[in-house]
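Changelog note: in this version the structure field was regenerated for every chain. One regenerated record is shown below for reference.
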Amino acid sequence: MKCFDSFALPLVLGCLIATGCVRDDFGPTGTVAGTLRKNGQPLSAGTKVVFMQVDQGYASFGETDAQGKFRITSFNRGELPVGNYQVMIQPASLGVDPDRVSAEDLLDRPQEFQQPSTAHEFDFKYRQTSTSGLAFDVKEGHNEFEIVID
């Protein structure tokens, strides 16, 4: 059963903000950057690395580049409150930009818009914080993490 995929990421982040779970009195903060690799190799560029503290309502992510490097940028200008974060990995979004392609185009010429899927590039367990086994302590200042998955 898919509990979370890259399509749902904006929805989850939006819900946290809309429900008031995200505060602006964070206390000490730190930035997060690092590398993500599987068996020594980077995953597809655009793979999302998501840091979450669900009990506090903090959720933030960054995307990898072609070398597997990432920087968390989506929350509080990239500053995360210090603490322990559960981490999950989401596949790169290789979908169609709805602002540039109409539904009629997709129906009339689907072969033009098919792209290789990155959904099976790594085990599904990494797509959920409850099963990924990935957790990191964010400390005040700059934090650099090397994330290695199998």
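Spot check on this record: Confidence is low (pLDDT under 50) at residues 17-23. Residues 40 and 115 are 25 Å apart (CA to CA).
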